[in-house]
């Protein structure tokens, strides 16, 4: 701050006597504080020194009067501006990453999804908008149609068109089949992947919530070895997905010859069930995938439920005991309703996670080739995200439009289901 | 239900590793409570009064001693089997359930042994039985605008239930008919009769009969069943209890939508719904503001008298305990100091703690001594009366209201210097000083002595003055 001797900071009415020349006044202050900047605004004089600012009323006769209100106001304004600026500065890195890696790609894939015969050349997909405005810089021609071999890149402007072609593609071609309540129906691979995903979601999500809730409840209740159990159930969270998949490969291994044993599960139960080998039945592979996904996601859910359980007031349990409620009544009528915010959170995240399931399935089949999802055709348990990857990388590497369209359908499905959950939660969740 | 507590003990184990010794929370607690009594456990915080209550309820296991409900030893019985109602300090109302469901919570999932009954016929019979009162329901419907939202319909049905003292489902059925514009009571009763006959015929077809009390007979015998308490029974009971605690209008609110006093009443209603033999209240008024506290304590008294349930309540507020209890148990440091009727304890404390704890402003204490069978404070003779004990250092306790101004020439009395006059609504409260005082001296004097100041001499009412042994702190008879 200013030195008190030179600055009448705390005394409102004291005037600064100066010579008739304004410059001299400024000069005298400058000599007093070498780093002081002065700004003359008509009749107000603002003195700055090391970030501090004071306002003086500068009379025409050359006298200046310290103005405390104006000083405080400036200070306040400056402080608020600094706060806003600081907040923006802190947010900028996150903004950049969100825009660059989340918002823009979503926008871009919307454009790609609605662009028919979009052609991917050397990362041209990153600016899909330019393909639409300028057209593709060339196109791939199928040489096999004219007796040649493979695809050949032909230079030259090639117009692109807007439309629903990519979406239609996903539902054409019924060379794959699903088993719908005992009836075999021919469908496209995308519908098969959707069907698989729905199956996994419907089985896995309720199962994972019930299992994790029960485990959390018992960990919460048990006093003996609680820490030990917490560690056991939290281990999957810190374990690598692929490493877990390897363990599951060993657990569910089998002898291709049909002999008993081969993996831990078969050895324990003395069976010769084929679990994840290429000859395994569909349900067996499904069991392994669901078990894997369950185990993988359990840790986090248990953690959330445990934290929720610890916030429930013990008096409710005391009151319920006095009221004569048994353990199941207490669990159903008190624990679950009071835990409903956590249950809602876990339900929504589990649904979204299950709809996006890919690594789980891949980890189970990791001993096979990259885009193998079980079965004779290699797509027995393909999920939607699995389909997107497979289509973009292996089937149509030159046109990401199909994958983009598929991802948008997935997005819409997830949005609808999440909205439905929120609608239900308004009645059922007690905050 | 009589309650006998014998040598109750509670020890909280310490930790030898961390050098924390065992804490004896309750030591040798003995108490006999008569049927229908309202007993207050009074003591400063941390004296173990809540622990006693929790041990009576069974939520805490005693380390020793026993609790008898009547003849039955319930010391190790689970709380739900003791037939008690418990009101927690912060009520512990289930926040996700409305008041109705909170109150009815103890009754859901409860099984009873009963005979199979035709509930439909019971409903019709009940409606026929109360036909003379149906006009009340008609009036309620007429006075209300039925075309409002669904909620108001629910409230009308609710009101009918309360007015006619019938379950919700009965009044809903009734409402359906009354709401028709051509409602006619006689034809309604006739219709009910026809319905009963129809129902009976249906039973007859499967070779069952229905007797006069609507129980179903198979080969002339009632059929034994183990069933849940049904909704109508719960409903009647909830309404009965809600009427006792005056909560009729709030049944469909959530606990966070009602006031503290109302929450308190809900907690009491929930404790009462199972018709407990013993009602336990843990600091029932501590979460209420001063005005509500006065109101609610009278309410508790009224409910207790109305239901005649043996009640024990815990409080640290002497006013509360004095105002409503039949019997007070003064506790300190895990031990019973005195048991008795409120005024008796005040007038006749057995030891220094009880004398100090009861009374506002607190009792004034002086260092005194007994010499030649007379009581002195300083070198002043306090009373003329001769005392049995002799040559003893004592603490003299004088109630603030026991002073009376006398002239300087009086041969007995106590000289005090008046320091300050506190303004109070009714009395003149004077803060005085004496070199022999052990605490702040507050006197309650006649309000006509308003101008009093300086050094004055007072004589002391012997009935409001107690003498305690300085070492044992026990009272000495004078």
What does this protein structure show overall?
The complex is a heterodimer of chains A (431) and B (478). In chain A, strand 4 and strand 5 form a beta hairpin. Chain A contains 15 helices and eleven strands. Chain A is flat, with a radius of gyration of 34 Å. In chain A, helix 5 packs antiparallel against helix 12 (340-355) and helix 5 crosses helix 14. The longest helix of chain A is centred in the first third of the chain and has 47 residues, at 68-114. Chain A is of the alpha+beta class and 431 residues long. A five-stranded antiparallel sheet of chain A has the order 1-5-4-3-2. Chain A is 57% helix and 12% strand. Chain B is of the alpha+beta class and 478 residues long. In chain B, helix 4 (134-143) runs antiparallel to helix 5 (150-164) and helix 8 packs across helix 9 (260-272). The longest helix of chain B has 21 residues, at 185-205. The two termini of chain B are 40 Å apart. The mean pLDDT of chain B is 86.
What is the CA-based Rg of chain B, rounded? 31 Å
Largest sheet of chain B: 6 strands, mixed
Give the N-terminus to C-terminus distance of chain B in angstroms.
Answer: 40 Å
Decide which structural class fits the backbone of chain B.
alpha+beta
Helix content of chain A: 55-70%
Secondary-structure-based class of chain A equals alpha+beta
CATH homolog superfamily of the domain at 170-428 in chain A? MetI-like
The count of helical stretches of chain B stands at 13
Strand order of the largest sheet of chain A: 1-5-4-3-2
Rg calc of chain A: 34 Å
CATH class of the largest domain in chain B: Alpha Beta
CATH topology name of the largest domain in chain B: Rossmann fold
CATH superfamily of the largest domain in chain B: P-loop containing nucleotide triphosphate hydrolases
Strand order, main sheet of chain B: write it out.
Answer: 6-12-13-3-14-15
Residue ranges of chain A: pLDDT <50 for 5 or more in a row? 1-21, 33-41
Shape of chain B: elongated
Q: Tell how many strands the DSSP assignment of chain B holds.
A: 26
Helix content of chain B: 25-40%
């Amino acid at each position: 701050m200013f030195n008190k001797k030179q600055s009448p900071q705390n005394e409102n009415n004291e005037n600064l006597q100066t010579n008739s020349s304004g410059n001299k006044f400024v000069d005298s202050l400058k000599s007093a504080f070498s780093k002081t900047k002065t700004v003359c605004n008509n009749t107000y004089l603002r003195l700055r020194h090391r970030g501090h600012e004071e306002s003086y009323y500068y009379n025409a006769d050359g006298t200046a009067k310290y103005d405390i209100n104006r000083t405080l106001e400036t200070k306040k304004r400056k402080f608020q501006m600094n706060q806003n600026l600081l907040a923006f500065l802190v947010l900028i890195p996150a903004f950049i990453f969100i825009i660059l890696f989340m918002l823009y790609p979503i926008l871009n894939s919307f454009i790609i999804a609605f662009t028919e015969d979009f052609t991917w050349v050397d990362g041209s997909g990153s600016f899909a908008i330019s393909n639409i405005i300028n057209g593709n810089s060339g196109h791939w021609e199928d040489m096999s149609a004219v007796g040649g071999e493979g695809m050949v890149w032909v230079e030259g402007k090639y117009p692109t068109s807007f439309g629903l072609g990519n979406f239609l593609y996903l539902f054409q071609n019924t060379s794959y089949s699903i088993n719908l309540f005992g009836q075999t129906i021919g469908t496209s691979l995308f519908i098969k992947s959707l069907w698989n995903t729905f199956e996994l979601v419907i089985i896995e999500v309720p199962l994972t919530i019930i299992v994790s809730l029960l485990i959390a409840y018992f960990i919460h209740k048990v006093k003996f070895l609680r820490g030990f159990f917490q560690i056991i159930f939290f281990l999957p969270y810190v374990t690598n997905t692929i490493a877990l998949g390897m363990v599951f490969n060993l657990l569910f291994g089998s002898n291709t010859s049909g002999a008993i044993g081969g993996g831990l599960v078969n050895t324990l139960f003395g069976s010769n069930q084929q679990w994840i080998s290429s000859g395994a039945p569909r349900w067996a592979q499904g069991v392994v995938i669901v078990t894997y996904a369950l185990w993988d996601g359990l840790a986090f859910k248990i953690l959330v439920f445990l934290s929720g359980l610890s916030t429930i007031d013990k008096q409710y349990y005391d009151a319920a005991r006095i009221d004569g409620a048994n353990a199941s009544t207490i669990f159903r009528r008190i624990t679950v309703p009071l835990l409903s915010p956590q249950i809602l959170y876990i339900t929504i995240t589990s649904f979204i996670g299950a709809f996006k399931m890919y690594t789980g399935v891949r980890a189970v089949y990791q001993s096979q080739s990259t885009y193998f999802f079980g079965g004779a055709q290699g797509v027995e348990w393909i999920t939607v995200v699995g389909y997107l990857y497979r289509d973009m990388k292996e089937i149509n590497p030159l046109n990401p439009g199909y994958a983009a369209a598929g991802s948008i359908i997935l997005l819409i499905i997830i949005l609808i289901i999440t909205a439905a959950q929120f609608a239900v939660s308004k009645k059922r969740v007690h905050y | 239900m009589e309650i006998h507590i014998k040598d109750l003990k509670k020890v909280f184990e310490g930790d030898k590793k961390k050098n924390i010794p065992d804490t004896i929370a309750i030591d040798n607690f003995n108490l006999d409570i008569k049927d229908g009594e309202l007993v207050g456990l009074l003591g400063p915080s941390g004296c173990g009064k809540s622990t006693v209550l929790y041990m009576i309820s069974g939520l805490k296991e005693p380390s020793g001693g026993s609790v008898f409900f009547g003849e039955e030893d319930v010391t190790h019985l689970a709380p739900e089997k003791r037939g008690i109602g418990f009101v927690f300090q912060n009520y512990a109302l289930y926040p996700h359930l409305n008041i109705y469901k909170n109150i009815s919570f103890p009754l859901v999932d409860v099984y009873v042994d009963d005979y199979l009954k035709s509930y439909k016929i019971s409903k019709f019979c009940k409606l026929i039985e109360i036909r003379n009162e149906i006009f009340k329901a008609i009036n309620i419907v007429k006075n209300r605008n039925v075309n409002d939202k669904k909620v108001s319909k629910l409230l009308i049905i609710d009101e009918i239930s309360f007015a006619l003292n019938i379950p919700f489902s009965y009044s809903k059925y009734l409402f359906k008919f009354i709401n028709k514009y051509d409602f006619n009571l006689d034809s309604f009763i006739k219709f009910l009769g026809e319905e009963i006959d129809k129902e009976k015929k249906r039973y007859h077809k499967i070779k069952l009969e229905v007797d006069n009390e609507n129980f179903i007979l198979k080969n002339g015998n009632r059929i034994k069943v183990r069933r849940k308490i049904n909704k109508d029974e719960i409903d009647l009971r909830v309404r009965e209890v809600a009427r006792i605690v005056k909560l009729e209008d709030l049944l469909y609110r959530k606990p966070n939508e009602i006031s503290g006093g109302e929450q308190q009443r809900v907690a009491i209603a929930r404790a009462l719904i199972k018709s407990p033999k013993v009602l336990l209240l843990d600091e029932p008024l501590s979460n209420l503001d001063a005005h509500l506290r006065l109101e609610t304590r009278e309410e508790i008294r009224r409910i207790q008298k109305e239901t005649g349930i043996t009640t024990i309540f815990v409080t640290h507020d002497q006013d509360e305990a004095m105002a409503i209890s039949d019997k007070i148990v003064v506790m300190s440091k895990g031990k019973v100091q005195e048991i008795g009727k409120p005024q008796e304890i005040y007038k006749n404390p057995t030891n220094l703690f009880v004398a100090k704890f009861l009374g506002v402003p607190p009792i004034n204490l002086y260092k005194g001594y007994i010499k030649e069978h007379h009581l002195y404070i300083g070198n002043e003779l306090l009373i003329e009366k001769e005392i049995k004990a002799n040559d003893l250092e004592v603490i003299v306790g004088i109630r603030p209201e026991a002073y009376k101004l006398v002239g300087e020439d009086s041969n007995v009395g106590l000289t005090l210097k008046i320091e300050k006059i506190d303004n109070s609504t009714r009395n003149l409260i004077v803060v005085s000083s004496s070199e022999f005082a052990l605490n702040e001296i507050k006197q309650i004097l006649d309000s006509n002595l308003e101008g009093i100041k300086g050094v004055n001499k007072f004589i002391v009412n012997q009935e409001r003055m107690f003498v305690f042994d300085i070492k044992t702190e026990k009272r000495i008879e004078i």
